[in-house]
Design goal:
A hairpin with a 2-residue loop joins strand 7 (113-117) and strand 8 (120-127). The protein is built from eleven helices and 17 strands. Residues 349-353 have low confidence and may be disordered. 30% of the residues lie in helices and 21% in strands. It is an alpha/beta fold. It has helices at 21-38, 57-71, 86-89, 132-138, 151-173, 298-302, 305-308, 326-333, 347-351, 362-374, 380-398, and strands at residues 2-5, 14-15, 18-19, 42-46, 75-79, 100-102, 113-117, 120-127, 178-184, 217-221, 227-229, 240-243, 260-266, 278-284, 291-296, 312-317, 337-342. It folds into two domains: 2-284, Purple Acid Phosphatase, chain A, domain 2 (4-Layer Sandwich); 291-398, no CATH class. Helix 1 packs parallel to helix 2 and helix 10 (362-374) packs across helix 11 (380-398).
Length: 400
């Protein structure tokens, strides 16, 4: 069975003010062509289809057109990520045409999509993004005891339901099916970047790979860099875990990524409880424009126009004195300049300035803000208030 794994489309997102909709449409056309050319049996999309819970209309239209076109060629299985609203994304799923499966319901984790090939059945399980503050109630055991407030705890509970369903299927049908899990989370060992939204809850943001034992392949979403996550020993079979990465770069921290999709050939079942034979092929996606970063004096950067003139550019100017008409001269030489910073050499050390980026721990930033205004580190009570405010804001954003 040939599976195409793609994720983190972030429809509706911009790159430092640049509208990416035409490039996102180009990716969808590439995807459809690849599905037809390679006769893909299933397309799996583990989350962050949209960039925000209430997406712009153009993004909704593009997803609608893409799913409709793909459904004519293959089976599509989609789960929501932390940027999506599971409720909005799953609206009308009972009315969806044959071939489109929106697995957006936490309560439905144990109800997979079943397919088959010459080697037997394959069950596809969808784990929607599991926000611990909500999922710990939804996945509580029959005794009503709440799960620990962490991504690890809710993911392990969800996977216990998956393994229970696989065991039930084997007993009922007398055959061990192969299993694919779609999950949107940060698995330990993965490599992140600035453009991924923080998932930290209670100080913990990752899930151990061993939580996914018992299945064959885990199609991961959330991290924007294409990568295989090292397996961890666990009871039963250890799956192959991959992030397909995002199809486009959404920050300069992704400038060295190789964007694309994964074609996963799921072969015959393994013997004695081992995973199925799996081959993964990386297919490059169309890249609209290279991302580059340059640093140096204004004259040094201007001298690079022939090399970087067609790139989306982040320029860091380091002259000791701010050059006259710096921005105008750079924009004339680099028409696709997106980000310009003036950082005089030694200036950061001299002034003790720390940059704030999305890669920073938000609570560290809040501590610095508190220290800046009050002249002292927050005490334990103040930290509790700050942490509660931050996590309340995250909860409201995720439930929007």
């Amino acid at each position: 069975m040939l599976i195409l794994h793609t994720s983190d489309w972030h429809l509706g997102r911009t790159l430092h003010g640049v509208d990416l909709s035409e490039y996102q449409r180009a990716f969808q056309e590439f995807l459809l062509h690849l599905v037809r050319e390679r006769k893909v049996d299933a397309v799996v999309i583990p989350g962050d289809v949209y960039d925000r819970a209430v997406p712009p209309l153009d993004a909704v239209r593009l997803l609608n057109e893409t799913l409709a076109a793909l459904a004519k060629e293959t089976t599509v299985i989609l789960t929501p990520g932390n940027h999506d609203s599971a409720t909005r994304l799953g609206f009308g799923r009972e009315l969806m045409r044959s071939g489109i499966h929106l697995l957006t319901d936490t309560a439905g984790i144990a109800h997979p999509v079943e397919m088959a090939d010459e080697h037997g059945p394959v069950l596809f399980f969808g784990l929607p993004y599991l926000e611990p503050d909500m999922a710990r109630y939804e996945l509580a055991g029959e005794d009503g005891e709440l799960l620990a407030r962490s991504h690890e705890a809710v993911t392990r509970a969800a996977m216990a339901r998956v393994r229970g369903r696989l065991e039930e299927y084997s007993l009922t049908h007398g055959i061990q099916p192969r299993a694919v899990v779609l999950a949107h989370t940060f698995v330990t060992g993965g490599s992140g970047c600035d453009s991924e939204r923080d998932l930290r809850v209670g100080g913990v943001d990752s899930v151990g790979a061993a939580a996914f034992h018992g299945v064959d392949y885990v199609a991961l979403g959330h991290l924007h860099g294409q990568q295989c996550v090292p397996a961890q020993d666990g009871p039963g079979k250890n799956p192959l875990l991959y992030y397909s990465g995002s199809p486009l770069a959404y920050s300069f921290s992704e400038k060295n990524h190789r964007k694309g999709v994964l074609l996963v050939e799921l072969g015959a079942p393994g013997a004695d409880g081992t995973r199925a034979r799996i081959e993964v092929e990386k297919v490059a996606a169309p890249v609209p424009r290279r991302l580059s970063e340059v640093r140096g004096s204004l004259e040094e950067i201007l001298a690079l126009a022939e090399t970087y003139g067609d790139d989306w550019l982040h320029a860091v100017v380091t002259d000791p004195q701010r050059p006259a008409q710096m921005q105008e001269r750079l924009r004339a030489a680099f028409p696709h300049l997106l980000l310009l910073e003036y950082r005089p050499q030694g200036g950061e050390h001299r002034h003790g300035v720390k940059r704030v980026s999305s890669a920073r721990d938000p609570r560290e930033v809040m501590d610095e803000f508190y220290r800046y205004f009050l002249g002292a580190d927050p005490d334990e009570k103040a930290r509790e208030v700050l942490a509660a405010a931050y996590e309340r804001a995250r909860g409201e954003e995720c439930s929007a």
